[in-house]
Amino acid sequence: MHGANRIGQVIDRKFMISEVSTEGGDRTRYDENHGVLFLAKDNAFPAALRFYRQECARLGAAAEQLLGIDLLIERVDFYQAANPDICKVPDVDGARGAHIIAPNHSYDIAFPNRRTQ
Known about the structure:
Layout (H helix, E strand, L loop, with lengths): L17 E3 L8 E3 L13 H15 L3 H20 L24 H4 L7
Helix pairs in contact: 1-2
């Protein structure tokens, strides 16, 4: 999925994403309007993956999904062990990242007919 996402703003403000799914034959494309990019060098990423795996299990995800996450966690752990010199605490780089921490747009822009209670 790429292009407009019905909320009037990108999801991932830090990265411009251009990804193609390798699953199946559909070759679905994804961008920053529909996806989030995490880097294997991010020291917080393994814990995030472990929580994601736990949440997928709680929601009843299929065994194949859970196995895929387990294998991803293993690869990220191996990557970080092999590359300690580039792994780091995640950060937003001051003024260069101001757009990342700018307030979100009002959802009234994306949902003008939404009624608040």
